[in-house]
C-alpha cells in the first residue's frame, strides 16, 4: 500500500511539473482578448448569423448551410464552421455571442497548440514566447471575436500540424492520414485557403521522416487522395443533388460547389476577378495614395456646404468601387498595392507585420550553418516547416488581387513560431558566439523597433507621439546597450534582453486590444484605433472611431439619419454594380435596404454585421399583417436587406440575387410560377445589386402595385439615399 501511495504521489508530482505556470497568464490574455464583451455583439456578421438562424430550423437547411429559412440560397462558404456555430446556438441559445463563441475558443486553442508544437523541439521558453506572440498578433483576436471562419480555419490547420509532427515522430501512417484528412476538413471551412499550408506539409514529411523514398511517396500519395476525398465529399453530394431539391449554391454562377471553390473562392482571389456577375474583366481603380489624398481633402472641407461634401464623398466612394467584386489591386479595403513590400504597407502591416524583421533575423539564425545535403537537426527540420508555411502565404498576399485584412491570420502561426524559436536561438547566439551570429539579436531588435515606429506613424493623431517615440527610443537604446555588452554573462544582460522583448510586444498588445477599446467590426474585422470601421488605415477626422459602422454610412430607413449630414458617406449613383460593395464573407453594403441603421445602437448591444442593423418595425408589421400564407415574408435583391429580418423573425426572406444580389438564380418564368403558387407577394427593391437579375427586377416593376411609403416606412423624415432614389415596396398577385 505504501508503495502504491508513493507511486501515486510521484505521478501527481509529475503532473504538477507538467503544468507550466507561465502559460496560464498567456492563456488568460488570449481568453480576454477573444472573449471579453462578445456578448455585446447582437448580430455579429449578419450574413452568417442569419444562416445559423435558418440552419436551426431544419436538417435540410443545416446540411446545405442555407442562408434563409426557406432554403432558397446558401451562403458563399462550405458548411463545417456553420455546423459548429449552429450546434453552439442550439446548446446556448441563439445569440450573437453563441455564434461567436466557437471562433473565440478556436483562437485560444491556437495559442495552446502553438505552445505545444514549439515547446517540444525548441524548449519551454520558445513555446511561451511563441504562444504570447500568437495571442498578441492583432488580427488574431480581431477575427476570433467574430463569427467569420478564419479563426477556426487556423485552429484546424494547427491541429493538422500537430498530427503531422506526431506522424514524423512515431513513423505511423495513421497520423499521416489524420493530418491530411484534417486539411480536407479545413477545405470544407474555407475551400482553397486551407491548401495554402500544403507546401509545408509535403516538404516537412519528405525531409523529416526516416523511411524509404518508396514509402514516403506511397504514404503521401495515399494521404493526398484521402485529403481530396474529404475535401470534395460535401461538394459531390450537393452537386449531385437535383437543383430543385436543394438551395442554390450562393455566389456561384452555375449552381455548383466546385465552381464556387475553384472560382469565386479560389483562383479569382489571386487574379482579383471576384465579380459575381459572370464578367472577368478588371477596371482601373484609384491607387491607395490617391484615395488617401482624396479622403484628406474631403476631411479638410468637412465644414463646407453639405451638398458639396456629399458630392465629394460620392466621388471617392465611386472610385473605390470600380473593381469587380468590390476589390481591386490598388488597395480596396486598405490591402495595399501588390508588390514585394506589400505586407509592410499601412492597412496590412499593423494587422500582422509587427515582428516580421525579428522573424527574418530569426530565420537567418535558425538556418545558420545548414548544409543542403544535411544532416538536419530536429530544430532545422521544424524551422523548414514553418518557413514553407510562411513564404507561400506571404507571397500570395503580396500579389493577390483581392482579399480582406482578416485573411492575414493565416500568417500568424509561422510568424509567432519564428518569434518564439528565434528569440531563444538568437539569445543563445548572442551569449555564446563572437562572430556575426552574435549581432543578430541586437539587429533584430533595432530593425523591428524601427518598423513598429513606421507602422504607428500614420496614427499619431489617435495614439499620440509618446508611444511611437517610446518604442523607437527604447528599441534603439536596448539594441545599442546589448551590442556594447555582448558576451557579458550577468543578470543585467538578461534583464535587458527581456526588456527588449517586452518593448517589441507592447504596441502589438495595444493593437490587439483595440477591438475591445474602440469596438470591432464583425463584417470586416481588423485591429487598430479605427477597428470599428473595418476599413483599416488611420482614422478619418470626419469619422468617429467609436462608431460601429462603415465610416458612418447610414442606409435608408435610418430613424436618426439625415441626408445632409457631413458624417455620412453616400454610395455613388450609377449602374447596378457600380454602387455595390461586395464583401465576401460579409455583407454587401447596399445603401438601400428596408432596415433601420444608425451610427450608434439604440441599445447596449452592438447590432453589427458591419453596420448597426436594426429591423424597420413598421415594415415588418405591415408585411406580417398582410401575409396571406405566402412562404416568404418578402423578397429583396440581396442578403444585406434580408439578413436582419431573418435574424429577428426566423421567417423566410428571399434574397433574389444571393449574397451580393448578382447570382443568376431567378428567371422571370420561375418568379411567375412562385407568385402563382402563393410563395411570395411583396418585393423590396432598392436599385442595387441587379447584375444577373435585371430582367427580373424590370418585370417586377412593370407588373406590380407600389405600396405607399407612408404605410411601411418608419418615419416620413428618413432620408432615402442611394443610386436610384427611394427604395420601394411592391406587391404582385397573379392568378
General description of the model:
The relative contact order is 0.11. Helices cover 53% and strands 3% of the residues. With 735 residues, the protein is an all-alpha fold. The model is unreliable at 1-16, 276-330, 539-603, 608-612 and 716-725 (pLDDT under 50). A five-stranded mixed β-sheet has the order 4-3-5-7-6, with helices on both faces. A two-stranded antiparallel sheet has the order 1-2. The longest helix has 27 residues, at 96-122.
Key attributes of the depicted protein:
two-stranded antiparallel ribbon, 7 strands, five-stranded mixed sheet, 27 helices, single chain, mainly alpha, 735 residues, 3% strand
Mean pLDDT: 81
Helical content class: 40-55%
Strand fraction: under 5%
Number of helices: 27
Task: Give a brief outline of the structure.
With 735 residues, this protein is mainly alpha-helical. It is 53% helix and 3% strand. It has helices at 2-18, 23-35, 46-55, 59-64, 80-92, 96-122, 124-136, 139-144, 150-170, 173-190, 198-208, 213-239, 257-271, 288-300, 306-320, 349-352, 356-366, 378-399, 412-432, 440-456, 460-463, 465-484, 491-517, 617-625, 639-649, 668-676, 694-702, and strands at residues 595-597, 613-615, 635-636, 654-655, 682-685, 705-706, 728-731.
Amino acid at each position: 500500500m505504501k508503495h502504491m501511495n508513493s507511486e501515486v504521489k510521484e505521478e501527481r508530482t509529475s503532473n504538477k511539473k507538467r503544468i507550466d505556470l507561465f502559460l496560464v497568464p498567456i492563456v488568460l490574455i488570449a481568453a480576454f482578448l477573444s472573449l471579453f464583451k462578445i456578448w455585446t455583439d447582437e448580430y455579429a456578421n449578419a450574413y452568417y448569423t442569419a444562416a445559423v438562424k435558418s440552419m436551426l430550423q431544419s436538417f435540410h437547411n443545416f446540411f446545405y448551410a442555407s442562408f434563409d429559412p426557406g432554403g432558397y440560397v446558401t451562403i458563399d462558404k462550405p458548411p463545417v464552421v456553420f455546423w459548429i456555430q449552429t450546434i453552439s446556438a442550439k446548446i446556448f441559445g441563439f445569440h450573437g455571442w453563441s455564434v461567436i463563441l466557437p471562433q473565440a475558443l478556436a483562437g485560444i486553442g491556437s495559442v495552446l497548440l502553438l505552445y505545444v508544437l514549439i515547446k517540444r523541439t525548441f524548449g519551454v521558453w520558445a513555446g511561451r514566447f511563441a504562444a504570447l506572440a500568437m495571442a498578441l498578433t492583432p488580427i488574431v483576436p480581431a477575427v476570433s471575436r467574430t463569427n467569420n471562419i478564419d479563426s477556426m480555419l487556423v485552429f484546424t490547420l494547427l491541429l493538422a500540424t500537430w498530427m503531422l509532427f506526431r506522424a514524423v515522430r512515431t513513423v505511423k501512417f495513421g497520423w499521416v492520414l489524420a493530418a491530411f484528412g484534417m486539411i480536407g476538413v479545413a477545405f470544407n471551412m474555407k475551400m482553397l485557403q486551407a491548401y495554402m499550408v500544403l507546401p509545408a506539409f509535403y516538404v516537412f514529411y519528405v525531409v523529416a521522416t526516416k523511411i524509404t523514398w518508396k514509402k514516403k511517396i506511397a504514404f503521401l500519395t495515399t494521404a493526398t487522395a484521402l485529403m481530396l476525398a474529404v475535401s470534395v465529399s460535401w461538394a459531390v453530394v450537393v452537386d449531385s443533388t437535383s437543383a430543385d431539391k436543394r438551395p442554390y449554391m450562393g455566389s456561384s454562377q452555375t449552381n455548383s460547389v466546385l465552381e464556387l471553390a475553384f472560382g469565386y473562392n479560389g483562383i479569382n482571389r489571386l487574379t482579383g476577378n471576384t465579380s459575381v456577375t459572370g464578367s472577368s474583366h478588371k477596371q482601373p481603380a484609384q491607387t491607395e495614395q490617391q484615395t488617401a489624398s482624396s479622403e484628406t481633402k474631403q476631411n479638410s472641407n468637412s465644414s463646407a456646404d453639405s451638398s458639396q461634401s456629399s458630392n465629394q464623398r460620392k466621388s471617392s466612394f465611386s472610385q473605390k468601387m470600380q473593381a469587380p467584386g468590390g476589390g481591386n489591386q490598388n488597395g480596396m479595403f486598405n490591402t495595399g498595392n501588390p508588390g514585394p513590400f506589400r505586407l509592410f504597407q499601412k492597412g496590412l502591416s499593423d494587422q500582422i507585420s509587427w515582428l516580421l524583421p525579428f522573424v527574418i533575423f530569426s530565420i537567418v539564425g535558425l538556418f545558420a550553418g545548414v548544409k543542403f545535403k544535411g544532416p538536419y537537426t530536429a530544430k532545422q527540420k521544424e524551422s523548414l516547416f514553418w518557413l514553407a508555411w510562411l513564404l507561400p502565404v506571404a507571397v500570395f498576399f503580396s500579389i493577390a488581387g483581392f482579399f480582406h485584412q482578416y485573411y492575414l491570420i493565416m500568417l500568424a502561426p509561422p510568424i509567432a513560431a519564428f518569434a518564439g524559436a528565434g528569440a531563444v536561438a538568437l539569445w543563445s547566439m548572442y551569449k555564446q558566439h563572437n562572430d556575426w551570429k552574435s549581432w543578430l539579436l541586437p539587429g533584430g531588435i533595432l530593425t523591428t523597433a524601427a518598423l513598429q515606429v513606421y507602422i504607428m506613424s500614420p496614427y499619431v493623431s489617435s495614439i499620440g507621439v509618446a508611444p511611437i517615440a517610446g518604442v523607437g527610443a527604447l528599441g534603439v537604446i536596448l539594441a545599442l546597450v546589448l551590442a556594447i555588452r555582448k558576451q557579458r554573462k550577468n543578470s543585467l544582460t538578461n534583464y535587458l534582453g527581456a526588456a527588449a522583448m517586452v518593448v517589441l510586444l507592447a504596441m502589438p498588445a495595444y493593437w490587439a486590444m483595440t477591438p475591445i477599446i474602440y469596438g470591432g467590426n464583425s463584417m470586416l474585422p481588423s485591429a487598430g484605433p479605427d477597428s470599428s470601421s473595418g476599413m483599416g488605415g488611420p482614422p478619418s477626422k470626419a469619422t468617429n472611431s467609436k462608431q460601429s459602422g462603415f465610416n458612418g454610412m447610414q442606409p435608408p430607413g435610418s430613424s436618426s439619419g439625415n441626408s445632409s449630414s457631413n458624417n455620412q458617406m453616400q454610395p455613388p449613383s450609377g449602374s447596378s454594380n457600380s454602387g455595390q460593395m461586395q464583401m465576401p464573407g460579409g455583407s454587401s453594403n447596399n445603401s438601400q435596404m428596408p432596415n433601420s441603421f444608425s451610427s450608434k445602437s439604440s441599445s447596449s448591444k452592438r447590432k453589427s454585421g458591419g453596420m448597426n442593423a436594426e429591423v424597420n418595425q413598421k415594415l415588418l408589421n405591415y408585411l406580417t399583417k398582410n401575409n396571406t400564407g405566402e412562404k416568404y415574408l418578402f423578397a429583396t435583391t440581396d442578403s444585406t436587406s434580408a439578413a436582419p429580418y431573418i435574424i429577428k423573425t426566423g421567417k423566410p426572406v428571399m434574397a433574389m440575387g444571393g449574397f451580393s444580389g448578382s447570382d443568376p438564380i431567378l428567371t422571370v418564368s420561375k418568379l411567375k410560377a412562385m407568385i402563382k403558387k402563393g410563395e411570395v407577394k411583396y418585393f423590396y427593391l432598392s436599385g442595387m445589386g441587379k447584375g444577373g437579375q435585371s430582367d427580373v427586377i424590370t418585370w417586377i416593376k412593370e407588373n406590380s402595385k407600389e405600396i405607399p411609403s407612408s404605410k411601411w416606412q418608419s418615419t416620413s423624415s428618413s432620408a432615402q439615399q442611394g443610386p436610384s432614389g427611394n427604395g420601394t415596396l411592391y406587391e404582385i398577385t397573379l392568378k
